[in-house]
Amino acid sequence: MKQNKMVEAIGGISDKYLNEAISYKPQKRFKYAGWMGLVALAACAMIIMGIGMFKGTNKADSVVALDINPSIELIISKHDKVLSVKALNEDAEVVLKDMDLKNVDLDTALNAIIGSLLKNGYLDEVYNAVNVCVENNDEGRANSLGEKFKAEIGNLFDDNDLIGGVNYQFCSNSEESKKLAEEYGVSVGKLSLAQTVSANTGMALEVAVELSISELWDLLDAGNANIITKDTAYKIAVADAKVEEAAAKLVSNKIQETGGLFTYAIKFTVGENELYKYEIDAVEGTILEREYEYVSKEETTGDSNQNASTEVEKESAAEDSTEIETESDGSDAKEEETKTPVEPAKQITKKEALAIAYKDAGVIEKAVKLEELKHKPVEKEYHIEFSVGLVDYVYVINAVDGSIISKESEDKTGAGDTTTDVDTNKTISADEALKIALAKAGIEFKDLTTCDIKYTVKKASAEYKVHFHVGKEHYEYTINAVTGEIVEKVHPTPVQPVQPVKPGDKEEASKPTPPTPSETPTTPELPTLSEKPTAPEAPTAPAAPTLQEGHTHPTPAGPGKKEDAKVSISFEKLAN
Amino acid sequence: MLDEEIIELFFARSEQALKELEAKYGKMCLQTSYNILGNHSDAEECVNDSYLGAWNAIPPTKPNPLLTYVLKIVRNVSLNRYHKNQAQKRNSSYDLAVEELSELIATPETVESIIEANELTAAIEVFLEMISDIDRVIFVRRYWFYDDYKHIAKRVGLSEKNVSVKLTRLRKQLKDYLSERGSFL
After folding, report:
1. ipTM exceeds 0.90, yes or no
2. By the number of CB atoms within 10 A of the CB, which of A28, A359, B101, B102 ranks highest?
3. Which residues of A touch B38 (CB under 8 A)?
4. Quick check: A378 contacting B, CB < 8 Å?
5. Does B118 contact A at CB distance below 8 Å?
6. Which residues contact B14 (CB under 8 A, 6 or more apart)?
7. B144: nearest CB among A5, A11, A281
8. pLDDT of A71-91, one tens digit each?
9. Rounded distance, CA A505 to CA A519, Å?
């Protein structure tokens, strides 16, 4: 009821909100302040030593550090000539490689740096944020330089069709700051920004300095957001995975930002085979995504199938035992007491998801090599990849109701995609297709010189291509395998070169009955195991000549005809 | 063709009006209906029924803008169809959206019983004014149009996860807002 009430209420909102939602386009942004941007470009820290400290046109007047995650420090003269350039981190070394900016005008140097940033992929994102931190005893001089940097970089962005913004920041020039910046491997400007963010948000400084400039500015925009620490995030992940913290081995734990959302991306392993990946909301500490993967060790065992099945069984066993325990407890709340990270309540287990996929694919668990199994609780789905022989399968299963959201399979034997919408139980057989073609042509089987039937299944259709020759005339029919309708016909044309009649088929030549395939070339089942799905078994009807690929049969009873009728059926499955 | 010209065709009782309507807004109507029903053939039927509804209503109605008017018909027709089909399945984007909304009125005996639908609409509109443009668009796309996360993400230029998290927060904000408002309404 309350659902309907909300639906009804939202349904009644003003047209202006609908129009806005219909016409909304993501805004391209360029701004010098505000900083709700996406991707980091840089901090540009300019440290201006007092004019009195340096005299003469070639003396250092200012020190400019550009952080573009690359952090670059420029020392410039009072006439805006670059006196030296220093890479503050590894990214900056890449950007400055082979560049000699000494005694170059600041404008030219900036242009070259921006060009190199572009070339090296540091400016290919949606939104680029630059922070210019100017440090000088003379704040007025620092401010004017800061404004100049903003304008120059802004113009360069415009020229290069980049979206982004530049922010100027005045920084103090204390030895303490320099030392701390060096300790963290960042520029003084970035350190200053990180310190501000740390003070405003409660984020640890060591975490803040890892963020990009735009991320830091986004955090400042967010204002009072409280960011949880890395350790807290890790503990949340480990607790959710229900593993002992001592047994978990941290692989990586990094804070990241996308579109204003800060998250910790955490990876840890348990033992040799289990890899956990978590994404945790850095503000609220909620789990946004969790994945659990088996890391196959086939390269060490040399028997991938056996290994994979063992892993699956191990998982199944674990879940089974848990379920038993749960039952004995009589507590539904503990139903998910497995190592598998599963969204509390209502989502199916991995075992169930695998069973659904295997059943649908028509494969048996022991033959399966499980490649990947991911549970995405936010999206409420399982992503499963496995292979059987040379056929790869990818399934996405709804984690709530177990329905199959999507499935794909690829036959690496070259047979192609085996998924089809065609109901395999409703297709006609090859001999029925042949009869239809012969009836249409007004020809009897006994009159055929050669005959070739190919079965083709595509995503939404299945068809037979029936080729045959009567003497030198070539007939070709394409018949819908479901409806039996003739889709296309070509006849007659001069005969194609006929393969030489095989000698020594006299026995078969004496058989009068036309070939009747005892086994419908059945279609489109998903291939199982490693058997190539394109190879039909030879029919076994004893009275009829067997239909085998390329097998040659006698032409039945054609007066005066001594050529054999070649009846072959080949199957091919085509990709979509 | 301009909306005004299409409406003129409606007024002239020209069937070309429906063709133009379909050509201009058919895709959007179909998507909206599909979001609710999760079934193409049902959605197509509902859209056709909606066109008939528009045909019967115009004239005398002279909607401006035409699109939202037609979309509202589509939404209503599709919701009616949905409730007829409800016994059969519960897996459309609409289902999921409605499920998410169900948590917003936490205390139905104190809020739902007091706030009539139009008052609730007014409260939601106030809430929509309080949030950012992009959040508003995300909210409306999700709970009016019933777009799935993927479509919303593409429309607003964010990741699906980002949209998901934003919606979670928006629902929480709305819930808090409605709770506060419910106390004095």
Report:
1. no
2. B101
3. none
4. yes
5. yes
6. none
7. A11
8. 777 777 777 788 888 887 778
9. 23
